[in-house]
Write a structure and sequence with these properties.
The protein is an alpha/beta fold. It has a domain of 166 residues: 3-Layer(aba) Sandwich (Rossmann fold). The protein is built from ten helices and ten strands. It has a six-stranded mixed sheet, sandwiched between helices. The protein has a four-stranded antiparallel sheet with strand order 2-1-4-5, covered by helices on one side. Helix 6 runs parallel beside helix 7 and helix 9 crosses helix 10. The protein is globular. The N and C termini lie close together (7 Å). It binds adenosine-5'-triphosphate. The site of adenosine-5'-triphosphate has 10 residues, from helix 1. InterPro entries: AAA+_ATPase, ABC_transporter-like_ATP-bd, ABC_transporter-like_CS, P-loop_NTPase. This is ABC transporter ATP-binding protein. GO terms for molecular function: ATP binding; ATP hydrolysis activity. Keywords: ATP-binding, Nucleotide-binding, Transport.
Length: 281
């Protein structure tokens, strides 16, 4: 079954999140320049540049260990790179200024690969964690209502609110993680391999959910994936990490033609051909 997703890739949503830079303003929502990340002798990134534009879904791909997660962590300020500039929503992500750091945190939602839910809290309590941190003055009943709204937005039934993560399927846990990532209505969403571990039907449903939410909420999405179907189904542009940097960043049909051994193997190797055949079937 080919994945069918509402709204075509490359068609950015009409309405952007109010905190997003205006489209056409020339201002990216994430700007990375000259990024260097090293672990001891190992150089992961060396002079990496990347722009993420308002309202797009950008897919980040690359071989295992090319530094996709390290890049995401550096952008989110969860890791201090050795060199480079990183701006998020016009703010310096490498600042020591606590107010700016908090503003970035407040405006970015993250779905980590394993969902990263607190196992001893229910789904509803997990979603309320960021609400408590940033809106501690809200009455409990309103926080509960907001958590319920996010859980429904993420496509979970209302009764999931009172379940522990261990009582959910893998796909439902991803949706619960997504609900928490959306708790504060961020303009910018980071997803680390959201469809990993899901069966093809569950993965296709998750792709649809991401596209629908991105269009409805005017989100910009930074999406790390190995999933070719996701790239074709929902990504407006694809950035390929190789040789310690972004070697190409463009709409997928341009990336497919890019002359680089990893790109050619990934997009034209046996697995890619199988995915292509599935799409054409
Ligand atoms: N805290 C750390 N300490 C030492 N090395 C690290 C650390 N975090 C990441 N690395 C190394 O940096 C490299 C890039 O890791 P990263 O997790 O970003 O890769 P990735 O592209 O996301 O890989 P995958 O597709 O397998 O998830 C790897 O070689 C990894 O071992």
């Amino acid at each position: 079954m080919a994945r069918r997703v509402p709204g075509s890739p490359n068609a950015a949503p009409d309405a952007l999140h109010p905190l997003c830079p205006r489209r056409g303003s020339g201002q990216p929502i994430v700007r990375v320049r000259g990024l260097v990340n090293r672990f001891g002798e190992q150089v992961v990134h060396e002079g990496l540049d990347l722009d993420v534009w308002p309202g797009e879904i950008i897919g980040i791909v690359g071989g295992s260990g090319t530094g996709k997660s390290v890049l995401m962590r550096a952008i989110l300020g969860l890791r201090e790179p050795q060199e480079g500039e990183i701006e998020v929503l016009g703010l310096n992500a490498r600042t020591d200024d606590a107010t700016q750091r908090r503003a970035i945190e407040r405006n970015t939602g993250v779905l980590f690969q394993d969902g990263a839910l607190f196992s001893s809290l229910t789904v509803g309590e997990n979603v309320q964690v960021p609400l408590k941190e940033y809106h501690g003055d809200l009455p409990d009943s309103l926080r509960y209502e907001l958590a319920l709204l996010k859980v429904k937005l993420a496509g979970l039934p209302a009764d999931a609110l009172n379940k522990l993560p261990s009582q959910l399927s893998g796909g439902m846990r991803k949706r619960a993680g997504l609900a928490r990532a959306l708790a504060l209505d961020p303009p910018l969403l980071f997803l680390d391999e959201p469809t990993a571990g899901l069966d093809p039907i569950g993965a296709a449903a998750f792709d649809r959910l991401i596209r629908t939410l991105q269009q409805a909420l005017g989100l910009t999405v930074f999406l790390i994936t190995h999933d070719l179907d996701t790239l074709y189904a929902i990504c407006d542009r694809v950035a390929v990490l190789a040789d310690r940097k972004v070697v190409v960043c463009a709409p997928i049909h341009e990336v497919e033609r890019f002359d680089h051994p990893w790109v050619q193997e990934y997009f034209h190797g046996p697995r890619a051909r199988a995915a292509q055949n599935t799409r054409e079937a």
